[in-house]
Amino acid sequence: MSSGLRLAAFSLVLVMIFGAGFGLGRVVGPVGSDPSPAGQHPAGVEHPIEAGHGEMGS
């Protein structure tokens, strides 16, 4: 078996393994994370309504 053919076979197997891992990750999703709706802050985090905006000092 020539070295070029070995390299091609190795590359193909590597792409297949990473592709399978990527596909499985897309199907399963994040493990151990608590899905929260986008745009909402965790409980206990407060932000001023006009944080950094508005008039200063007067």
**H/E series, N to C?**
H
Beta-strand content estimate: under 5%
Total strands: the figure is 0
Note the gap between the termini: 81 Å
What structural class results from the helix and strand content? mainly alpha
**What kind of sheet is the major sheet?**
none
Helix content: 40-55%
Uncertain parts: none
Q: How many helices?
A: 1
Gross geometry: rod-shaped
C-alpha Rg, in Å?
Answer: 25 Å
Mean pLDDT comes to 79
Quick summary of this structure?
With 58 residues, this protein is an all-alpha fold. The protein has one helix spanning 3-28.
Describe the protein.
Helices cover 45% and strands 0% of the residues. The mean pLDDT is 79. The chain has a domain of 28 residues. The protein has one helix and no strands. It has 58 residues and is mainly α.
Which properties best describe this structure?
1 helix; mainly alpha; 58 residues
What's the SSE blueprint?
Blueprint: H1 3-28
